[in-house]
Amino acid sequence: MDRHIQRLLNRISLAFAVAGTLALFHVFFKTSVSCSYSGHNLHHHDTLTQTISHSPFPRSSCDAASRPTLLPDRRFSRIQSSRSWRRGVAALSSLFLRLRTAHLLSNSSRILCVSSGAGHEVAAFRESGVVDVTGVDLIDFPPLVSRADPHNLPFFDNVFDLGFSRGLSGALFPVRFVGELERTVRKGGAVALVVERCGSEEEVASVKGLFRKSSLVEVSNITLSDSQMTLIVMRVNGLSP
Ligand SMILES: *[C@@H]1O[C@H](CO)[C@@H](O)[C@H](O)[C@H]1NC(C)=O
Ligand SMILES: *[C@@H]1O[C@H](CO)[C@@H](O)[C@H](O)[C@H]1NC(C)=O
User: Fold this and answer.
1) Domains in the chain, ordered, with CATH?
2) Is the pTM of this model over 0.70?
3) Which terminus, N or C, of the chain has the lesser number of Cβ atoms within 10 Å?
4) Distance between CA atoms of 110 and 134, rounded to whole angstroms?
5) Side-chain half-sphere of 172: how many Cα atoms within 13 Å?
6) What is the DSSP letter of 56?
7) In angstroms, what is the span from residue 32 Cα to ligand 1's centroid?
8) 199 CB less than 6 Å from ligand 2?
9) Atom 13 of ligand 2: nearest residue by CA position
10) Which residues contact 239 (CB under 8 A, 6 or more apart)?
11) What is the pLDDT of residues 82-123, one digit of tens each?
């Protein structure tokens, strides 16, 4: 009788030992599989689009270990040295020269760039000697662009001298988008928008009509990095038209 119980207990403990070992194997396997998978993923998506998106907060130490080892600074300097970056910045720099000539921009201007992507315009303004340049977009792109909703800018009224954006066409609510630029730019300051080429007066008027308290300064057809665009500059005068 005692021997029977002894044998039964032995079998039960053996069964537990086997189950425990299997469970351990399972955990080990699952972990290493997901680790190598995300590593694999990273290689394939190591493009500019990947770098703009947020790295999710690591859910486990395994995730953390497979995160890109490239520091944001290194990553940015690599982007900055690319030809397309240089070309994009150079095109904007020559556009900004026009704003200087029109006395809408100086080295002491406080500038807001909305929907600025990776920050070409921020770089172009800074390189031209402007110190106080803020770049925002829905997705942050360090070090030049921080995260803010263009439709709900986290800035006080009247704090900027110039608002610049190439993002109007991508805005979900154009009226709100323009309204926020008008609100944050001081009276006497300007808002400069680069939009798809306006082929008619009506198209210009439809952009102009989004403004509530500004008047038209300039409309010009420009070529920006091989794209036919139109520059529309409005002066914020605080009066409804
Ligand atoms: C603006 O700053 C740049 C760079 O510091 C300088 O070269 C340029 O002369 C300045 N422009 C004016 C008008 O002061
Ligand atoms: C811009 O170009 C379009 C044709 O692409 C033309 O209809 C329009 O008048 C031009 N606007 C200006 C301000 O020159």
Assistant:
1) 72-236 (3.40.50.150)
2) yes
3) N
4) 8
5) 5
6) P
7) 55
8) yes
9) 220
10) 213
11) 999 999 999 999 999 999 999 999 999 999 999 999 999 999
